[in-house]
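Hi there, hope your week has been kind to you so far. Do you reckon you could talk me through the fold, stretch by stretch? Thanks so much in advance, here it is.
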Amino acid sequence: MSVSEHAYDLRGKSVLITGAARGIGEATARAAHARGASVTLLDLDGDDSERAAAAIGERALGLAGDVTDAASLDAAVEAAVARFGGLDVAVANAGIAPTGRTTRVYETELWERVVDVNLLGVWRTVRAALPHVVARRGHLTLVSSIYAFTNGTFVSPYAVSKAGVEQLGRALRVELAPHGVSVGTAYFGFVDTDMVRQSMTDDPLGKRFEERIPLPLRKKISPAAAGEVLARGIERRAPRTIAPRRWAALSMLRGIVNPAIDAAMARDAGVRELVREADVA
């Protein structure tokens, strides 16, 4: 039986989560804590992390942590290990999403920052946590997105970063199996978080593009539901989790349907008009 097929009891485990002061990260910390884990919440603002941890209760530690700074992550991991005696699980969740624009007019600094936070930040989190997780034969969860396998029109750096996270998860899953470590990749559709509201609902271009997505796929889930998905995935040592589940079919059929979708979008008069509006330097 492979490591991924063993149930994983979170009672007594130490779990570290990035991007955890709010949204999916905070909800994941709550879900893990409710299952008996000790949780370390990392976010850029240490005060926000501390408030979120205090609201969860005992066995919760809030720390400042910047996923673009390897030294910051090293220090946070060591603080979690000192507080809880080790580290069993790391959830690389921190991410950002810009408002929509075409790749031609993206500011270079912004495009590269999205990749730095969303992809290299996941790598830095893994690098800092890995010695401890390997020592305890634990689990890593990398938060990707349905944009790993759907067209990234207007959000190219976000899609690029999330596709990279998927590939990192695949490689780690094989490389860490001999060490007894399981690796899961999470793919979320639209979660009702501040990030999604700012980049889609509150952004005129994002809102209009969202309206072109088939209605069943637009369904949003709550951060609490997303946190439960991640916690259950850790308990199952699941190699992948997708929520809402209706995105799973597109993921499985991506090699067949994506070329057709891309071609249809390139021909679509409505999409072309949106591109012309967004493609203004």
Summary: The chain has a mean pLDDT of 93.
